[in-house]
What we know:
The protein is an alpha+beta fold. It has helices spanning about 1-75, 85-105, and strands at about 105-110, 120-125, 135-140, 145, 150-155, 155-160.
Amino acid sequence: MDTHHEQKKDKHRRELDEIKMKAEEYLSGWKRAQADYQNLQKQSEKEKLEIGSFARSAVLVQMLPILENLRRAFHHVPDEQKKAEWVVGLQHIQTQMEELLTQYQLTEIDAEGKQFDPHLHEAVAREKRDGVESDVILEVLQSGWKYGERVLVPSKVKVAE
Length: 161
């Protein structure tokens, strides 16, 4: 009778071991599914932020030509008009635009006097100049802009030959 009892115990142990293995398997699967779900949530949140960032940068890029035109206009204001109220008012608008762009993490690419970098600059003219090394930026013809670390608009520059 002991043998029969031992056989039942062994059978119950095997069944219990199988149940434990199944429970561990289910728990492991549940943990993987939960980790996958959390990764999906993180990826989804990241994509939302990227879409928002892209949309914001697209709008900001459309403002850049306006700022560039304001800057160009100030180069043509006659000296006797530089202190006129309308000129000062327009300069305040320019300053506000620059502050807004900075607030949204747009930064102007520093180019003049720097070494030409095709990732940041677009060479639209070349000029031979005595005493200046080749590929040094002589003049910025149109400002370039970055959004964070991403170049939105490369600087259009004149480069030394």
